[in-house]
Amino acid sequence: MNLTTLKYLVSIAELGSLTAAAGAHYVTQPAISIRLRKLQDELGVALVEPKGRGVRLTRAGEVVLDYARRFGRLEEELLREIADLEGLERGRIAIGTIDAASAYVLPRVFSRFRERYPGIDISLEVMATNPLLMELRAGRLDLVVGTLPIEGGGDLEVFPIYTERLLLVAHPRHPLSRRRNLTSAALGGHAFISFHEGAITRRIIEKVLSAQGVSPRVTMTTDSPEAIRNLVAAGLGMAILPEKVVRDDIRRRSLVEIRIPGLAFERTLGLIIPARRYRSSTVRAFLSVLAGGLAIELPERLLLARERPGTAASRPKAQRVFGGRRIE
Fold this sequence. Notes:
Elements: H1 3-15, H2 18-25, H3 29-43, E1 48-51, E2 54-57, H4 59-84, E3 91-97, H5 99-104, H6 107-116, E4 120-126, H7 129-137, E5 143-148, E6 156-170, E7 191-194, H8 200-211, E8 217-221, H9 225-233, E9 239-242, H10 243-252, E10 256-257, E11 265-274, H11 281-294, E12 320-322, E13 325-327
Parallel strand pairs: 3-4, 3-5, 7-8
Antiparallel strand pairs: 1-2, 5-11, 6-9, 6-10, 6-11, 12-13
């Protein structure tokens, strides 16, 4: 049994065939088959069985897969600890973020981090929060900046870092854009463009609307705020989007904000990290720059010692930011 064979097994499980797994590792299919056969002989059980044109794991294979993934995570931790011995001259950090955060929350942090640690590469994954959490739990990401609240987070640590308003917007020629003294009931029947069902931001929006007795008629869905904004600007429906995504369009009058007394939307973005995983000095360095760049407080155990509050490279006092307003 060796780590390479276990990595092959993980790829077989994820890709569904020996040929695909071989391609992913740049080896031949017979090489994968030989390794797999030796592992099965060593354990005395079959690990895969035919399924259509591919294969699937047996019950024993699923057990071995769980350990294979654990060994893979341990190998990553080992490599990170060894890299820590070389200081912060080089390295890599894998970050997951939602679209909006990558556009207007994190760029300043990335810029500061690159200035301070030019030898460390950032691998950035941009998608919806729930898929990012799957990647984080699988060990393929070091941290995530996503929409709160998250469910089933006992294995994760969560820190709110940014709160923003969401605005109801429409095309300037939308029927509601010319009406005054609107109530929430006026939204009934109008087409909405929203995030995919199950998206956290959509749940936040629909909870507020439900409290007002409104059930939105969602006619188009996508997880890209920019795509939603463009669809609204094309006159295909209304939407509720982060203020920073639409403020320039409102200023240019390609979109209009529809204001309804008593109807307000807000969401909070949070830093999400594994609770019990080794944190390399690279990760702690990034968290330190994040805390300073966004003026938020994080536990000192998460930060790089030389970057902690009170040291020469740190801010004199951490603050928390909500909706662009700093609160002492």
